[in-house]
Specification:
The protein is of the alpha+beta class and 167 residues long. The chain has helices at residues 23-26, 28-39, 46-55, 70-77, 91-97, 146-153, and strands spanning 82-85, 100-109, 112-123, 126-130, 140-143, 156-163. The protein has a six-stranded antiparallel β-sheet with strand order 1-6-2-3-4-5, with helices on both faces. β3 (112-123) and β4 form a beta hairpin.
């Protein structure tokens, strides 16, 4: 899957703007949806996906990103079975049973605070995420437990969206 987006910071400022800002700053929501679709074997038009998400409850027209429930609404509207999991202790099992996932989380570094979306899936080698870090260059290995990975990272306020293939 060489057409996954591994690092949103590599998107040029004028390419695929999200709301009033570049996708390199606020595009993690559409990127997670795009990557999850690719993990499920689907392709999509990026600019059409952005327009769709901007109509579907963005935060100040995308200027501050995507609402945490918007990816779930997208996949439900497209006919995919979707579950939202709010208890991190249940993430490992839920993600193993899914075909792809979108994870929303908050982070804090000193006085800076933010939120981010990533697409992920379980593989025989463990959990793998896409567009996880500011300097990601490929798939990011999370290890055998998504719950343990989140605790190590110190991420909080998480929501896991599990997605199954259409029946």
């Amino acid at each position: 899957m060489d057409d996954l987006i591994y690092c949103q910071r590599n998107i040029p400022p004028r390419e695929h703007p999200y709301g009033l800002r570049p996708s390199a700053k606020t595009g993690c929501g559409w990127i997670a949806v795009y990557n999850a679709l690719r993990l499920l074997g689907y392709t999509t038009d990026i600019d059409g996906l952005i327009r769709y998400l901007l109509r579907l409850l963005p935060l100040i027209h995308g200027t501050f990103g995507t609402s945490f429930w918007a990816p779930a609404l997208c996949f439900r509207n497209w006919g995919f079975p979707v579950k939202l999991v709010f208890n991190p202790r249940r993430y490992d099992r839920a993600a193993r049973e899914a075909d792809a996932c979108v994870l929303f989380y908050h982070w804090r570094r000193k006085l800076r605070f933010g939120a981010h979306f990533v697409a992920l899936r379980h593989t025989p080698q463990g959990f793998v995420g896409y567009n996880t870090y500011r300097n990601s260059t490929g798939p990011d290995r999370y290890g055998g437990s998504l719950y343990a990975f989140l605790r190590r990272q110190g991420w909080f306020g998480t929501v896991l969206i599990t997605i199954r293939q259409k029946s």
